[in-house]
C-alpha cells in the first residue's frame, strides 16, 4: 500500500484568542475547525499543522484539548505582531518548519518570506481611514508605520496564491487598490461562536427584561464613531449606554467625550465581557448600536441578532450586505438620524425585528467558513 505524503501547513496563530478581539476569535475558531477537518477519515491527504504562537500560555488557551492532537505541532516564537522581529526573525521559524503552505489570517506577512502563501484580508481599513486622528502615535511614528503597512499589505496580496475575504464589500475594496488580485479572492463569510448558535435556537421573546439601555461592543478607534452615540445621549436622558471593549487604546479620548457631553451617569465602560454574560446584556438592552464609518464584517451585530437583540447600524455598504433587512439603519454623520431610528425601533414590532435578525444570524457559521477555507487550502498544495 502506498504511503500518503504528509503535507505541512503552517498557520500564524499569534493573533488568535480572545485577547485579540475579532481577528482573535476568527483565528481560534478557524484553527479548531481545520484541525477537525484534517482528522476526518475520508481525506485523501495527510495534513500536519504547524501552529506558530507567541507564547505557551496563548497556545494552551487557544487549543485547549486540541493541544495534544496528533496532527499539530506547536512552535513558540516569542515574536509580537507588527514589529521588526516579525519581518526579520519570524521567517526563520517558517523556513525551519519546511512548510508546503503558510496561512496567515491577516496582512502582516514577512516581506522576505518566499514560500507558498495563503492569507485572509479582513479589511483595508487603514487604506481608507488615514491621518494622525486614527492613531495614538506621534505623527512621524504614524507615517513610518503607515508606509510599512502599505508596503507589507501590498506584498502579501501580491504574493498570496489565494486571498480569503469575509464579504463582497471587502473584495471590492481590495480590487479598488489591487486589481491584479481579481482571480485569487475567495469570499468566506465569518461565523458566530457556539454560545450564539445556541441562543438562535431559543424561543423568540420580546423580552420583558428590556431596559432603556443601548450596548456597543468593539474597539474604541475613531472610525468606530462612538462620538455620535455619546453625543446623542445628551438628548436621550432616559437611556444608558454600555461599552464593551477588551482594548484600552483610545479609552482616554472616549472618557473625554463622555465628560464633554456631560453624560457620565449614562455611560458605563465594562472592558472585556465573556460571551455568556454578553448574551445577557444584549437581551437586557433595547439594541446593539453599530455607528462605524468602516468595518470588515460587523460580527458583533450578527451575534446580537443571534441573542434576540435588534441592531441599529450606520448606513454603510458592509452593514447593508451582512445585516440585510434585519437591522435599522441611520446616517453615521447625523445624531438626528440616529435618534429618529431609535424612536422608530421603540414604535416597531420588536418580535418581528428579532425574528428577522435570527434568520440573518443563522446564515453565518464558522463551520461553513472553515470548510470553504479548508477546501481552498488543499487546492494550493
Overview of the molecule:
This protein has 381 residues and is of the alpha/beta class. The protein has two domains: 6-191 and 365-379, 3-Layer(aba) Sandwich (Rossmann fold); 194-361, Rossmann fold (3-Layer(aba) Sandwich). The protein is built from 16 helices and 13 strands. Strands 3-2-1-4-5-6-7 form a seven-stranded parallel sheet, with helices on both faces. Strands 10-9-8-11-12-13 form a six-stranded parallel sheet, sandwiched between helices. Strand 1 (6-12), helix 1 and strand 2 (46-53) form a beta-alpha-beta unit. It is globular, with a radius of gyration of 21 Å. The two termini are 22 Å apart. The model has no long low-confidence stretch (mean pLDDT 93).
Topology:
Elements: E1 6-12, H1 21-39, E2 46-53, H2 56-63, E3 72-76, H3 84-88, H4 90-96, E4 101-104, E5 117-120, H5 125-128, H6 139-159, E6 162-165, H7 168-177, E7 185-187, H8 194-200, E8 213-217, H9 226-233, E9 240-244, H10 251-260, E10 267-271, H11 275-284, E11 287-290, H12 299-306, E12 311-314, H13 317-323, E13 328-330, H14 335-347, H15 350-361, H16 366-379
Quick overview:
The chain is an alpha/beta fold and 381 residues long. It has 2 domains: 201 residues, Rossmann fold (3-Layer(aba) Sandwich), CATH 3.40.50.2000; 168 residues, Rossmann fold (3-Layer(aba) Sandwich), CATH 3.40.50. The protein has 16 helices and 13 strands.
Number of helices: 16
The oligomerization state is single chain
Count of strand segments:
13
Spatial gap, N to C terminus:
22 Å
Amino acid at each position: 500500500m502506498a504511503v500518503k505524503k504528509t503535507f505541512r501547513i503552517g498557520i500564524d496563530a499569534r493573533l488568535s484568542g480572545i485577547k485579540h478581539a475579532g481577528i482573535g476569535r476568527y483565528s481560534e475558531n478557524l484553527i479548531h475547525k481545520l484541525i477537525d477537518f484534517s482528522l476526518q477519515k475520508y481525506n485523501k491527504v495527510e495534513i500536519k499543522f504547524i501552529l506558530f504562537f507567541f507564547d505557551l500560555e496563548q497556545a494552551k488557551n487557544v487549543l485547549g484539548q486540541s493541544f495534544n492532537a496528533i496532527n499539530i505541532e506547536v512552535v513558540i516564537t516569542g515574536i509580537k505582531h507588527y514589529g521588526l522581529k516579525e519581518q526579520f526573525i519570524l521567517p526563520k521559524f517558517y523556513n525551519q518548519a519546511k512548510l508546503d503552505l503558510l496561512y496567515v489570517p491577516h496582512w502582516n506577512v514577512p516581506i522576505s518570506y518566499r514560500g507558498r502563501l495563503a492569507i485572509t484580508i479582513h479589511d483595508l481599513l487603514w487604506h481608507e481611514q488615514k491621518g494622525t486622528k486614527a492613531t495614538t502615535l506621534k505623527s512621524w511614528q504614524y507615517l513610518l508605520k503607515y508606509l510599512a503597512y502599505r508596503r507589507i499589505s501590498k506584498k502579501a496580496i501580491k504574493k498570496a496564491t489565494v486571498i480569503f475575504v469575509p464579504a463582497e464589500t471587502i473584495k471590492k475594496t481590495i480590487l479598488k487598490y489591487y486589481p491584479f488580485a481579481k482571480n485569487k479572492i475567495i469570499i468566506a463569510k465569518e461565523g458566530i461562536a457556539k454560545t450564539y448558535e445556541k441562543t438562535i435556537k431559543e424561543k423568540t421573546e420580546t423580552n420583558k427584561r428590556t431596559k432603556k439601555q443601548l450596548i456597543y461592543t468593539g474597539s474604541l478607534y475613531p472610525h468606530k464613531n462612538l462620538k455620535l452615540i455619546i453625543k446623542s445621549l445628551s438628548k436621550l436622558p432616559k437611556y444608558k449606554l454600555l461599552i464593551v471593549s477588551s482594548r484600552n487604546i483610545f479609552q482616554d479620548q472616549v472618557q473625554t467625550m463622555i465628560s464633554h457631553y456631560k453624560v457620565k451617569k449614562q455611560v458605563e465602560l465594562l472592558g472585556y465581557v465573556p460571551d455568556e454574560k454578553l448574551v445577557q446584556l444584549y437581551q437586557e438592552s433595547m439594541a446593539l448600536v453599530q455607528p462605524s464609518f468602516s468595518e470588515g464584517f460587523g460580527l458583533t451585530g450578527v451575534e446580537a441578532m443571534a441573542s434576540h437583540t435588534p441592531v441599529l447600524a450606520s448606513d454603510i455598504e458592509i452593514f447593508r450586505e451582512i445585516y440585510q433587512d434585519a437591522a435599522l439603519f441611520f446616517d453615521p454623520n447625523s445624531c438626528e438620524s440616529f435618534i429618529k431610528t431609535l424612536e422608530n425601533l421603540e414604535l416597531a414590532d420588536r418580535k418581528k425585528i428579532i425574528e428577522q435578525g435570527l434568520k440573518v444570524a443563522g446564515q453565518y457559521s464558522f463551520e461553513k467558513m472553515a470548510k470553504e477555507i479548508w477546501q481552498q487550502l488543499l487546492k494550493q498544495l
